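re: that chain from earlier
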Amino acid sequence: MRIVVVGGTGLIGSQVVALLRDRGHEAVAASPSTGVDTLTGEGLAQALTGADVVVDVPNSPSFDPEPALDFFTRSERNLTGAEKEAGVRHHVVLSIVGVDQVPDYGYYRAKVAQEEAVRNSGVPYSIVRATQFFEFVAPVMDMTTEGAEVRLPSLRLRPMASADVAAALADAALGEPSYGIRDIAGPEVERLDRLGEITLAAKPDGRSVVTDETAGPFAGMPDGALIGDDTAHLASTRYEDWLKRS
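^ sequence. v structure.
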């Protein structure tokens, strides 16, 4: 199959492209750096010519509510419109576990709007919702560092390796449209402050973790919203094992 990965040069997209190529498919990375801009529509018609499937994984350059909402809704209108013209038969989009349970968080509202745009597009679709990536733990710790203290809330997460997210997306792209949502998550539930402690135990740098429920981008999130339920498909990679390899 010819599969276009929009956002195909990023963390998730580049891994999806590699996995699909390894399985013998023609996987094309589409992003502004390759001349494809979903916000303006530039390059979409050419990129989607002959495409069977689109994997939709670009991220908004801003986490602020209004720019994120504009990015996701405008991008989906342009992308799915071009898909219909090209006869694409399956649209696979990456979203976030629990995204519809935190209406006060503007970026998550924007992702909900993205999902709705995909559902209403008329293109057969599958929505894959993932928990937070292991790769995000260190940047969140850096954001909340004050001196030698990393201030993190005790919010429970079930994070997963980006490689496992990419594998799930590749599997979805090679399957039939589900017209629904599949939740994927890591194997273990951990508190965010505990993840910080595990990180610093593996890679000491002189900092220590202080539990602070008001710190960082996850402050105020309802506990339990981001871990998924019993229907979530659990990946096998543990955070400690991933840290040793990374």
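Helices lie at 11-22, 44-48, 65-86, 106-119, 137-143, 162-174, 192-202, 239-245.
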